[in-house]
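To: structure desk
From: M.T.
Subject: fold request, one chain
Message: Could you run this one when you get a chance? Sequence is below, nothing fancy, just the single chain.
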Amino acid sequence: MPSEAVQINPFETAKRQVDIVCDLIGINGGIREMLKYPKRELSVNFPVRMDDGSYRVFSGYRVQYNMARGPTKGGIRYHPNVTLDEVRALAAWMTWKCAVVNLPYGGAKGGVICDPKHMSPGELERLTRRYASEIAPLIGPEMDIPAPDVYTDSQTMAWFMDTYSMLKGYSVPGVITGKPISLGGSEGRGEATGRGCAYVIREAAPHAKVKVKGGTVAVQGFGNAGSVVAKILAEEQGAKIVAVSDSRGGVHSPAGLDIPALEAHKAKTGSVVGFAGTKPVTNEELLELEVDILIPAALENQITPKNADRIRAKIVAEAANGPTTPDADQVLYEKGITVLPDVLANAGGVTVSYFEWAQDIQGFFWTLKEVNDRLERVMVSSYAGVQAEAQKRKVHNRTAAYVVAISRVVDAIRRRGVFP
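Reply: Done. Structure tokens follow.
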């Protein structure tokens, strides 16, 4: 990944994005300050017994950014580069994301500094259970509902839900989303981020004068979101996926990639690298390929002023959180590139997480078709609202999405007032 990913403070980026929108719509004083700081943040340091019998102390965080519109919602990531400022930024982005798609949530995020690639399933289970117990006083189905994120999955969520339930003395499926279906998970949750992104790309394509069918696509980050959006664009919308990458490198084939075969290759080898019939491509090179649609689905700060002028895609659809810096946004806008910002493009995950939570609360579950139909309605409606705001104000889509989101949060803050 480009070195900028560790040089740019993501929370400073998040606050700058708030300032840009507050300047535009005239939000000043105390409310602007409230939008730029988390409501609550918890840092924890906890021991975990390793497989060799030794103990290691891990550090983790949970940040609840804003509760004006409802309980907070946001994922938990396991990564060696997790920082408190990164978690703060992600919690802020979750706040705006939930508001963009009009969910009754605020934003939160959590993270543990660890390298899950070098930990056994048993060690990850013990880490998860201890982290869950440490943050348990601040979470719950009416307060803060975590979910999967980078290097966490449905099994992680099952351990988390079980730990919280044991502390309560009864099962609480609504405390977390992204669970296995057998524990109250929702149909369609696993592919929701990628599917929601594909819906937004489909809606945006006519405005960007792009034909998805037959169009070329490059995907940086072939994890859950990236692989799903690639598969849906190829199989349901007729796009040609010409390049994908993961943390070890990438592969490129102008003739198009066989996505199911590539998924099988990655499952077998642990990476897309070395897939038959392709040429190697770095993560940096992939971003600059001449394609119709570029999907950054890896980590933040991938498109910066240093490489923005070399981006040649017509649409940049952010399946990752924060992949484009504010300065790069302006460069892409001036080049006529349509950016579908993270707070809109990857909001399918939190939308179906909301569906899962609602199903858990009711104890009444929906079919896969019902979930996908509802997701499509939310994403289509949300894109239309952002597009209308962008045209009205003559700004790029990220600013328009933030205008929609921040206006909704500010309205909630003003109507609630400040206690006491």
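Reply (cont.): The chain has two domains: 1-37+190-346+393-420, 39-174. Let me know if you need anything else for the meeting.
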